[in-house]
Write a structure and sequence with these properties.
This protein has 197 residues and is α/β, with parallel strands linked by helices. The protein is built from four helices and eight strands; from the N terminus they run βαββββαβαβαβ. The protein has a single domain, classed as Rossmann fold, CATH 3.40.50. The structure holds pyrazine-2-carboxylic acid and zinc ion (ZN). Belongs to the isochorismatase family.
């Protein structure tokens, strides 16, 4: 059984959004077309409370894209984005959300960011997605969405570490590419055994 995992195709990651990823909206039609080919479709939604610890605005003297040491490791500080209930946190209006079997939210813990669909950024706290996929008999996952070098990357690597067979369709992803993050993500996914299509 094979699941399509659609990562964070939300307004704030599309052009004119708060954390716009170049070309983020170009992948929506292709993702919609892919949905019918899978046994399960799962969407993730970045879903932060206002004042989230990953926002630069939550820390005196910090600017977006600065780094900060958190108890769980290094964290990029982002512009405020995907605040729960806002239009920026909503899915892109053209994304066929009605076809999703499951929508899983992440990043709701004020103190920890969550790039991966499987674990928060402490790499320990589960989101519950692993159990959902296993109990549905899923062994294989194809990952698409935003952003390739952050949430797609962490989700794909965690899925591979958990023993799923994983492919990333890079034509249906777009990257932020911050300080070499895309090259690092590509190397990390390859090392983890993720097939990069
Ligand atoms: C993401 C940065 C912050 C992503 C989410 O979806 O890749 N990136 N929050
Ligand atoms: Zn976020």
């Amino acid at each position: 059984m094979h699941a399509l995992l659609v990562i964070d195709v939300q307004n704030d990651f599309c052009p004119s959004g708060a954390l716009a990823v170049a070309g983020g909206d170009e992948i929506v039609t292709g993702i919609n077309a892919l949905m019918a080919d899978f046994d399960a479709v799962v969407l993730t939604q970045d879903w932060h409370p206002a004042g989230h610890s990953s926002f630069a605005s939550s820390h005196d003297g910090k600017a977006p894209y600065d780094m900060m040491k958190m108890p769980y490791g290094d964290q990029v500080l982002w512009p405020d984005h995907c605040v729960q209930g806002t239009d920026g946190a909503a899915f892109h209006p053209m994304l066929e959300t009605d076809r999703a079997d499951l929508i899983i939210r992440k990043g709701y813990n004020p103190a920890i960011d969550s790039y991966s669909a499987f674990f928060e950024n402490d790499h320990k706290t589960p989101t519950g997605l692993e159990g959902y996929l296993r109990t549905r008999g899923i062994t294989e996952v194809t990952v698409v969405g935003l952003a390739l070098d952050f949430c797609v990357n962490f989700s794909a690597v965690d899925a591979a570490k958990l023993g799923f067979k994983v492919a990333v369709r890079r034509d249906l992803c777009r990257a932020i590419d911050l300080n070499g993050s895309l090259a690092e993500a590509t190397a990390g996914m390859t090392a983890a055994g993720v097939a990069l299509d």
